[in-house]
Amino acid sequence: MAGMADHRDWIARDAAVVWHGFTQMAAYPDNAPVVVARAEGHHLYDPDGNRYLDAISSLWVTTLGHRVPELDAALIAQVERGAHTTLLGNGNVTTVELSEALARVVPVDDPHFLYAGDGASAVEQALKIAFQYWVNRGVAGRTTFLAFGDAYHGDTIGALSVGDGGFGTDLFDPLRFPVLRAPRFTDPDCFDRAVELIAAHASELAAVIVEPVVQGAAGMHLADPADVARLAAACREHDVLLICDEVATGFGRTGTLFASEQCGVRPDLLVLGKGLTAGYLAMSCTVASGRVYEAFLGDDLGPRTFYHGHSYSGNALAAAVALAHLEVIEARAVLANVRARSEQLRALLHDRIAPLPQVGEVRLHGLMGGVELAPPTDGLRWGRRVCAAAVARGVLLRPLGDVVVLMPPLTVTPEEITEIVHVLAEAIVEGAR
Ligand SMILES: *Cc1c(COP(=O)(O)O)cnc(C)c1O
After folding, report:
1. Model confidence, pTM
2. Does pLDDT of 272 surpass 50?
3. Cβ 124 under 6 angstroms from ligand 1
Protein backbone atom coordinates (compact mmCIF):
# COMPACT_ATOMS: atom_id res chain seq x y z
CA MET A 1 0.00 0.00 0.00
CA ALA A 2 1.79 3.05 -1.32
CA GLY A 3 0.03 5.58 0.88
CA MET A 4 0.29 3.64 4.11
CA ALA A 5 2.96 6.01 5.42
CA ASP A 6 0.50 8.84 5.00
CA HIS A 7 -2.06 7.42 7.43
CA ARG A 8 0.73 6.58 9.88
CA ASP A 9 2.00 10.12 9.60
CA TRP A 10 -1.45 11.53 10.39
CA ILE A 11 -1.73 9.25 13.42
CA ALA A 12 1.60 10.62 14.69
CA ARG A 13 0.57 14.24 14.06
CA ASP A 14 -2.78 13.53 15.75
CA ALA A 15 -1.15 11.96 18.81
CA ALA A 16 1.25 14.91 19.09
CA VAL A 17 -1.47 17.56 19.54
CA VAL A 18 -4.98 16.11 20.00
CA TRP A 19 -6.18 14.80 23.35
CA HIS A 20 -8.87 12.18 22.67
CA GLY A 21 -11.68 11.57 25.17
CA PHE A 22 -11.89 8.23 26.98
CA THR A 23 -8.52 7.36 25.45
CA GLN A 24 -5.15 6.60 27.02
CA MET A 25 -3.00 8.81 24.84
CA ALA A 26 0.22 6.91 25.60
CA ALA A 27 -1.33 3.86 23.93
CA TYR A 28 -3.42 5.68 21.32
CA PRO A 29 -1.10 5.33 18.30
CA ASP A 30 -0.74 1.57 18.93
CA ASN A 31 -4.46 0.85 19.13
CA ALA A 32 -5.17 0.97 15.40
CA PRO A 33 -6.92 4.35 15.34
CA VAL A 34 -8.49 5.51 12.10
CA VAL A 35 -7.80 9.15 11.25
CA VAL A 36 -10.63 10.06 8.92
CA ALA A 37 -9.89 12.16 5.88
CA ARG A 38 -13.33 11.90 4.31
CA ALA A 39 -16.74 10.42 5.07
CA GLU A 40 -19.39 9.48 2.55
CA GLY A 41 -22.54 7.39 2.90
CA HIS A 42 -21.94 4.65 5.45
CA HIS A 43 -18.17 4.71 4.95
CA LEU A 44 -15.14 6.53 6.32
CA TYR A 45 -11.89 6.92 4.40
CA ASP A 46 -8.42 7.33 5.89
CA PRO A 47 -5.76 9.53 4.20
CA ASP A 48 -4.59 6.50 2.18
CA GLY A 49 -8.07 5.98 0.76
CA ASN A 50 -8.75 2.81 2.79
CA ARG A 51 -12.47 2.40 3.38
CA TYR A 52 -14.20 1.49 6.66
CA LEU A 53 -17.86 0.69 7.19
CA ASP A 54 -18.96 2.93 10.07
CA ALA A 55 -20.60 0.24 12.22
CA ILE A 56 -20.63 2.46 15.33
CA SER A 57 -22.26 5.44 13.58
CA SER A 58 -19.44 7.74 14.73
CA LEU A 59 -20.11 6.82 18.34
CA TRP A 60 -23.88 6.52 17.95
CA VAL A 61 -24.64 9.93 16.47
CA THR A 62 -24.89 9.24 12.73
CA THR A 63 -28.36 8.15 11.66
CA LEU A 64 -28.44 8.37 7.85
CA GLY A 65 -24.74 8.17 7.06
CA HIS A 66 -22.49 10.98 5.85
CA ARG A 67 -22.96 13.50 3.03
CA VAL A 68 -26.74 13.10 2.98
CA PRO A 69 -27.81 15.37 0.08
CA GLU A 70 -30.90 16.81 1.83
CA LEU A 71 -28.94 17.56 5.01
CA ASP A 72 -25.98 19.07 3.17
CA ALA A 73 -28.42 21.30 1.27
CA ALA A 74 -30.21 22.38 4.48
CA LEU A 75 -26.88 23.26 6.08
CA ILE A 76 -25.67 25.30 3.11
CA ALA A 77 -29.01 27.13 2.82
CA GLN A 78 -28.81 28.06 6.52
CA VAL A 79 -25.22 29.27 6.18
CA GLU A 80 -26.56 31.77 3.67
CA ARG A 81 -29.15 32.95 6.24
CA GLY A 82 -26.68 33.22 9.12
CA ALA A 83 -24.98 30.54 11.21
CA HIS A 84 -25.89 31.47 14.74
CA THR A 85 -27.82 34.02 16.77
CA THR A 86 -28.44 33.80 20.50
CA LEU A 87 -31.56 32.25 22.00
CA LEU A 88 -31.06 34.03 25.32
CA GLY A 89 -33.88 36.57 25.25
CA ASN A 90 -34.18 36.45 21.44
CA GLY A 91 -35.31 33.97 18.82
CA ASN A 92 -34.42 32.51 15.45
CA VAL A 93 -36.96 31.38 12.84
CA THR A 94 -35.14 28.13 12.10
CA THR A 95 -35.15 27.13 15.77
CA VAL A 96 -38.86 27.95 15.95
CA GLU A 97 -39.52 25.73 12.93
CA LEU A 98 -37.49 22.88 14.40
CA SER A 99 -39.33 23.15 17.72
CA GLU A 100 -42.71 23.11 15.97
CA ALA A 101 -41.68 19.99 14.02
CA LEU A 102 -40.34 18.26 17.14
CA ALA A 103 -43.50 19.19 19.06
CA ARG A 104 -45.51 17.09 16.60
CA VAL A 105 -43.47 13.93 17.28
CA VAL A 106 -42.04 13.89 20.82
CA PRO A 107 -43.90 11.76 23.40
CA VAL A 108 -44.29 14.74 25.75
CA ASP A 109 -47.51 16.64 26.53
CA ASP A 110 -47.52 20.29 25.43
CA PRO A 111 -43.73 20.24 24.90
CA HIS A 112 -41.28 23.15 25.26
CA PHE A 113 -37.69 22.90 24.04
CA LEU A 114 -34.55 24.14 25.81
CA TYR A 115 -31.51 23.58 23.60
CA ALA A 116 -27.90 22.85 24.56
CA GLY A 117 -24.83 21.45 22.85
CA ASP A 118 -24.18 17.97 24.22
CA GLY A 119 -26.20 15.21 25.78
CA ALA A 120 -24.60 15.80 29.16
CA SER A 121 -25.56 19.49 29.11
CA ALA A 122 -29.15 18.57 28.31
CA VAL A 123 -29.14 16.09 31.21
CA GLU A 124 -27.83 18.88 33.49
CA GLN A 125 -30.68 21.09 32.33
CA ALA A 126 -33.22 18.36 33.07
CA LEU A 127 -31.83 17.84 36.59
CA LYS A 128 -31.84 21.56 37.36
CA ILE A 129 -35.32 22.05 35.91
CA ALA A 130 -36.65 19.14 38.01
CA PHE A 131 -35.01 20.58 41.11
CA GLN A 132 -36.33 24.10 40.55
CA TYR A 133 -39.79 22.83 39.57
CA TRP A 134 -40.45 21.89 43.20
CA VAL A 135 -38.91 25.11 44.53
CA ASN A 136 -41.16 27.13 42.22
CA ARG A 137 -44.18 25.18 43.42
CA GLY A 138 -43.25 25.90 47.04
CA VAL A 139 -42.66 22.22 47.86
CA ALA A 140 -39.69 21.76 50.20
CA GLY A 141 -37.36 18.78 50.41
CA ARG A 142 -37.53 17.51 46.83
CA THR A 143 -33.78 17.65 46.37
CA THR A 144 -32.63 14.20 45.29
CA PHE A 145 -32.86 11.91 42.28
CA LEU A 146 -33.39 8.22 41.73
CA ALA A 147 -31.19 6.62 39.07
CA PHE A 148 -30.32 3.08 38.04
CA GLY A 149 -27.22 1.01 38.52
CA ASP A 150 -24.93 1.00 35.45
CA ALA A 151 -26.68 4.15 34.20
CA TYR A 152 -24.77 6.51 31.94
CA HIS A 153 -25.99 10.08 31.48
CA GLY A 154 -22.84 11.94 30.38
CA ASP A 155 -19.62 13.26 31.87
CA THR A 156 -20.32 16.64 33.44
CA ILE A 157 -20.53 16.56 37.24
CA GLY A 158 -24.32 16.46 37.50
CA ALA A 159 -24.69 13.88 34.74
CA LEU A 160 -21.85 11.91 36.32
CA SER A 161 -23.71 11.97 39.63
CA VAL A 162 -26.89 10.35 38.29
CA GLY A 163 -24.71 8.00 36.26
CA ASP A 164 -23.20 5.02 38.00
CA GLY A 165 -19.46 4.31 38.25
CA GLY A 166 -17.50 2.51 35.59
CA PHE A 167 -15.15 3.59 32.80
CA GLY A 168 -12.63 4.57 35.47
CA THR A 169 -14.84 7.43 36.67
CA ASP A 170 -14.89 6.19 40.28
CA LEU A 171 -12.09 8.60 41.17
CA PHE A 172 -14.59 11.43 40.73
CA ASP A 173 -16.84 9.99 43.45
CA PRO A 174 -15.98 12.85 45.87
CA LEU A 175 -17.41 15.28 43.30
CA ARG A 176 -20.63 13.34 42.74
CA PHE A 177 -23.73 14.45 44.64
CA PRO A 178 -25.53 11.54 46.33
CA VAL A 179 -28.53 9.94 44.63
CA LEU A 180 -30.86 7.05 45.38
CA ARG A 181 -29.66 4.08 43.36
CA ALA A 182 -31.95 1.36 42.03
CA PRO A 183 -30.25 -1.90 40.93
CA ARG A 184 -28.85 -2.35 37.44
CA PHE A 185 -30.95 -3.58 34.52
CA THR A 186 -29.25 -6.99 34.74
CA ASP A 187 -30.93 -7.48 38.13
CA PRO A 188 -34.38 -8.94 37.33
CA ASP A 189 -35.85 -7.14 40.37
CA CYS A 190 -34.50 -3.69 39.48
CA PHE A 191 -37.84 -2.18 38.52
CA ASP A 192 -39.64 -3.71 41.52
CA ARG A 193 -36.96 -2.20 43.72
CA ALA A 194 -37.14 1.16 41.92
CA VAL A 195 -40.91 1.29 42.43
CA GLU A 196 -40.43 0.52 46.15
CA LEU A 197 -37.80 3.26 46.44
CA ILE A 198 -40.12 5.77 44.77
CA ALA A 199 -42.92 4.90 47.21
CA ALA A 200 -40.59 5.12 50.22
CA HIS A 201 -38.75 8.30 49.23
CA ALA A 202 -41.25 10.32 47.17
CA SER A 203 -41.10 13.28 49.53
CA GLU A 204 -37.34 13.64 48.87
CA LEU A 205 -37.34 12.94 45.16
CA ALA A 206 -37.27 15.68 42.56
CA ALA A 207 -37.21 13.14 39.74
CA VAL A 208 -36.40 9.66 38.51
CA ILE A 209 -34.03 9.41 35.56
CA VAL A 210 -33.92 6.38 33.28
CA GLU A 211 -32.61 5.31 29.89
CA PRO A 212 -35.82 3.79 28.52
CA VAL A 213 -35.52 0.20 27.20
CA VAL A 214 -31.74 0.21 26.50
CA GLN A 215 -28.89 1.23 28.80
CA GLY A 216 -26.39 1.96 26.06
CA ALA A 217 -23.02 2.74 27.60
CA ALA A 218 -23.56 0.04 30.24
CA GLY A 219 -23.05 -2.41 27.37
CA MET A 220 -26.49 -2.54 25.72
CA HIS A 221 -28.50 -3.86 28.65
CA LEU A 222 -32.19 -4.24 27.93
CA ALA A 223 -35.31 -3.56 29.95
CA ASP A 224 -38.85 -4.75 29.30
CA PRO A 225 -40.90 -1.78 28.06
CA ALA A 226 -43.67 -2.89 30.44
CA ASP A 227 -41.27 -2.38 33.36
CA VAL A 228 -40.48 1.17 32.19
CA ALA A 229 -44.25 1.74 32.05
CA ARG A 230 -44.55 0.53 35.68
CA LEU A 231 -41.80 2.93 36.67
CA ALA A 232 -43.64 5.81 34.99
CA ALA A 233 -46.88 4.79 36.72
CA ALA A 234 -45.12 4.83 40.10
CA CYS A 235 -43.78 8.32 39.37
CA ARG A 236 -47.26 9.53 38.51
CA GLU A 237 -48.85 7.86 41.55
CA HIS A 238 -46.32 9.40 43.95
CA ASP A 239 -46.04 12.75 42.13
CA VAL A 240 -42.35 12.42 41.22
CA LEU A 241 -41.10 13.79 37.90
CA LEU A 242 -39.86 11.31 35.29
CA ILE A 243 -36.85 12.15 33.12
CA CYS A 244 -36.33 9.88 30.12
CA ASP A 245 -32.78 10.12 28.80
CA GLU A 246 -33.17 9.28 25.11
CA VAL A 247 -29.82 10.72 24.06
CA ALA A 248 -28.85 7.27 22.75
CA THR A 249 -32.26 5.76 21.99
CA GLY A 250 -33.87 8.76 20.32
CA PHE A 251 -34.43 9.36 16.61
CA GLY A 252 -35.24 5.85 15.49
CA ARG A 253 -32.42 3.81 17.05
CA THR A 254 -34.82 1.34 18.69
CA GLY A 255 -37.29 1.05 15.80
CA THR A 256 -39.68 3.80 16.87
CA LEU A 257 -38.78 7.48 16.79
CA PHE A 258 -38.43 7.38 20.59
CA ALA A 259 -38.09 4.35 22.87
CA SER A 260 -40.58 5.89 25.34
CA GLU A 261 -43.29 5.26 22.73
CA GLN A 262 -42.74 1.48 23.02
CA CYS A 263 -43.34 1.80 26.76
CA GLY A 264 -46.44 3.95 26.33
CA VAL A 265 -44.63 6.51 28.51
CA ARG A 266 -44.92 10.29 28.28
CA PRO A 267 -42.17 11.70 30.52
CA ASP A 268 -42.22 15.10 32.22
CA LEU A 269 -38.73 15.74 30.86
CA LEU A 270 -37.19 14.13 27.79
CA VAL A 271 -33.49 14.46 26.99
CA LEU A 272 -32.39 14.36 23.35
CA GLY A 273 -28.93 14.54 21.81
CA LYS A 274 -26.75 12.35 19.61
CA GLY A 275 -29.05 11.63 16.62
CA LEU A 276 -30.93 14.94 16.81
CA THR A 277 -28.88 16.46 13.97
CA ALA A 278 -28.28 13.11 12.26
CA GLY A 279 -24.71 13.28 13.55
CA TYR A 280 -23.89 16.54 11.74
CA LEU A 281 -23.60 19.12 14.52
CA ALA A 282 -23.47 19.34 18.29
CA MET A 283 -27.01 20.00 19.45
CA SER A 284 -29.01 18.58 22.32
CA CYS A 285 -32.31 19.43 23.88
CA THR A 286 -34.28 19.16 27.10
CA VAL A 287 -37.98 18.79 26.39
CA ALA A 288 -40.27 19.91 29.22
CA SER A 289 -43.96 19.09 29.47
CA GLY A 290 -46.43 21.96 29.76
CA ARG A 291 -46.97 21.14 33.43
CA VAL A 292 -43.25 21.54 34.18
CA TYR A 293 -42.85 24.58 31.95
CA GLU A 294 -45.75 26.45 33.49
CA ALA A 295 -44.22 26.22 36.97
CA PHE A 296 -41.48 28.54 35.69
CA LEU A 297 -43.81 31.32 34.57
CA GLY A 298 -43.87 34.41 36.77
CA ASP A 299 -42.65 37.98 37.14
CA ASP A 300 -40.00 39.37 34.80
CA LEU A 301 -36.55 38.89 36.38
CA GLY A 302 -38.35 37.05 39.18
CA PRO A 303 -37.26 33.94 41.06
CA ARG A 304 -39.30 31.49 38.96
CA THR A 305 -37.10 32.13 35.92
CA PHE A 306 -34.77 29.33 34.85
CA TYR A 307 -31.38 31.00 35.21
CA HIS A 308 -29.45 28.67 32.94
CA GLY A 309 -28.37 28.86 29.30
CA HIS A 310 -25.63 27.95 26.85
CA SER A 311 -23.92 30.23 24.33
CA TYR A 312 -24.72 28.01 21.34
CA SER A 313 -28.24 27.08 22.47
CA GLY A 314 -30.53 26.55 19.47
CA ASN A 315 -27.74 27.04 16.93
CA ALA A 316 -29.39 27.76 13.57
CA LEU A 317 -27.08 25.52 11.49
CA ALA A 318 -27.81 22.58 13.77
CA ALA A 319 -31.53 23.42 13.83
CA ALA A 320 -31.71 23.53 10.03
CA VAL A 321 -30.11 20.10 9.76
CA ALA A 322 -32.26 18.66 12.57
CA LEU A 323 -35.40 19.93 10.82
CA ALA A 324 -34.38 18.39 7.48
CA HIS A 325 -33.44 15.20 9.34
CA LEU A 326 -37.01 14.74 10.62
CA GLU A 327 -38.30 15.11 7.05
CA VAL A 328 -35.81 12.56 5.67
CA ILE A 329 -36.64 10.00 8.40
CA GLU A 330 -40.23 10.20 7.21
CA ALA A 331 -39.57 10.41 3.45
CA ARG A 332 -37.16 7.47 3.39
CA ALA A 333 -39.21 5.28 5.76
CA VAL A 334 -36.13 4.97 7.96
CA LEU A 335 -37.99 3.41 10.91
CA ALA A 336 -39.20 0.53 8.73
CA ASN A 337 -35.60 -0.09 7.69
CA VAL A 338 -34.46 -0.13 11.32
CA ARG A 339 -37.03 -2.80 12.14
CA ALA A 340 -36.27 -4.93 9.07
CA ARG A 341 -32.48 -4.71 9.49
CA SER A 342 -32.83 -5.41 13.20
CA GLU A 343 -34.65 -8.69 12.45
CA GLN A 344 -31.99 -9.60 9.89
CA LEU A 345 -29.22 -8.77 12.35
CA ARG A 346 -30.92 -10.72 15.12
CA ALA A 347 -31.11 -13.85 12.96
CA LEU A 348 -27.50 -13.53 11.79
CA LEU A 349 -26.18 -12.94 15.31
CA HIS A 350 -28.14 -15.97 16.47
CA ASP A 351 -26.71 -18.18 13.72
CA ARG A 352 -23.15 -16.91 13.38
CA ILE A 353 -22.11 -15.15 16.61
CA ALA A 354 -24.01 -16.53 19.60
CA PRO A 355 -22.77 -20.14 19.05
CA LEU A 356 -19.08 -19.10 19.13
CA PRO A 357 -17.37 -20.34 22.30
CA GLN A 358 -15.79 -16.89 22.77
CA VAL A 359 -19.23 -15.25 23.06
CA GLY A 360 -21.10 -14.94 26.34
CA GLU A 361 -24.28 -13.16 25.34
CA VAL A 362 -25.77 -11.29 22.40
CA ARG A 363 -28.15 -8.38 23.08
CA LEU A 364 -30.08 -6.38 20.49
CA HIS A 365 -32.94 -3.91 20.40
CA GLY A 366 -33.60 -2.10 17.14
CA LEU A 367 -30.15 -1.22 15.83
CA MET A 368 -28.52 -1.05 19.27
CA GLY A 369 -26.54 -4.23 19.70
CA GLY A 370 -23.91 -5.62 22.03
CA VAL A 371 -21.92 -8.84 21.76
CA GLU A 372 -20.55 -9.71 25.16
CA LEU A 373 -17.32 -11.65 24.83
CA ALA A 374 -16.45 -14.30 27.39
CA PRO A 375 -12.74 -13.90 28.03
CA PRO A 376 -11.10 -16.90 29.66
CA THR A 377 -9.04 -14.66 31.97
CA ASP A 378 -9.12 -10.98 32.84
CA GLY A 379 -6.77 -8.47 31.30
CA LEU A 380 -6.68 -9.86 27.78
CA ARG A 381 -8.52 -6.82 26.42
CA TRP A 382 -10.50 -9.02 24.07
CA GLY A 383 -12.93 -6.30 23.14
CA ARG A 384 -10.09 -4.11 21.94
CA ARG A 385 -8.38 -6.92 20.01
CA VAL A 386 -11.57 -8.08 18.34
CA CYS A 387 -12.37 -4.53 17.25
CA ALA A 388 -8.83 -3.98 15.92
CA ALA A 389 -9.21 -7.18 13.89
CA ALA A 390 -12.51 -5.85 12.48
CA VAL A 391 -10.93 -2.49 11.61
CA ALA A 392 -8.18 -4.33 9.72
CA ARG A 393 -11.00 -5.95 7.71
CA GLY A 394 -12.64 -2.61 6.92
CA VAL A 395 -15.40 -2.48 9.55
CA LEU A 396 -15.03 0.20 12.23
CA LEU A 397 -16.04 -1.18 15.63
CA ARG A 398 -15.29 0.05 19.14
CA PRO A 399 -15.86 -1.95 22.32
CA LEU A 400 -17.23 -1.05 25.73
CA GLY A 401 -14.90 -3.24 27.78
CA ASP A 402 -15.57 -6.77 26.58
CA VAL A 403 -18.81 -5.82 24.84
CA VAL A 404 -18.48 -5.24 21.09
CA VAL A 405 -21.02 -2.56 20.21
CA LEU A 406 -23.01 -2.82 16.99
CA MET A 407 -24.59 0.52 16.07
CA PRO A 408 -24.82 0.75 12.29
CA PRO A 409 -26.46 3.75 10.63
CA LEU A 410 -30.27 3.49 10.55
CA THR A 411 -30.13 3.33 6.75
CA VAL A 412 -27.76 0.34 6.79
CA THR A 413 -28.36 -2.06 3.88
CA PRO A 414 -28.93 -5.85 4.05
CA GLU A 415 -25.51 -6.39 2.41
CA GLU A 416 -23.81 -4.21 5.01
CA ILE A 417 -25.46 -6.10 7.89
CA THR A 418 -24.16 -9.33 6.38
CA GLU A 419 -20.67 -7.82 6.04
CA ILE A 420 -20.64 -6.61 9.65
CA VAL A 421 -21.58 -10.03 11.03
CA HIS A 422 -19.19 -11.86 8.71
CA VAL A 423 -16.28 -9.62 9.72
CA LEU A 424 -17.24 -9.76 13.39
CA ALA A 425 -17.23 -13.57 13.36
CA GLU A 426 -13.72 -13.60 11.83
CA ALA A 427 -12.52 -10.88 14.19
CA ILE A 428 -13.76 -12.74 17.26
CA VAL A 429 -11.90 -15.88 16.22
CA GLU A 430 -8.74 -13.92 15.41
CA GLY A 431 -8.96 -11.74 18.53
CA ALA A 432 -9.24 -14.86 20.67
CA ARG A 433 -5.95 -16.27 19.47
C1 LIG B 1 -24.01 9.68 25.04
C2 LIG B 1 -25.02 9.78 26.13
C3 LIG B 1 -25.10 10.93 26.95
C4 LIG B 1 -24.11 12.05 26.87
O5 LIG B 1 -24.16 12.72 25.66
P6 LIG B 1 -22.88 13.59 25.21
O7 LIG B 1 -23.33 14.29 23.97
O8 LIG B 1 -21.78 12.61 24.95
O9 LIG B 1 -22.56 14.51 26.33
C10 LIG B 1 -26.13 10.98 27.88
N11 LIG B 1 -27.01 9.97 28.02
C12 LIG B 1 -26.96 8.87 27.26
C13 LIG B 1 -27.99 7.82 27.44
C14 LIG B 1 -25.96 8.72 26.30
O15 LIG B 1 -25.88 7.60 25.57
Report:
1. 0.97
2. yes
3. no
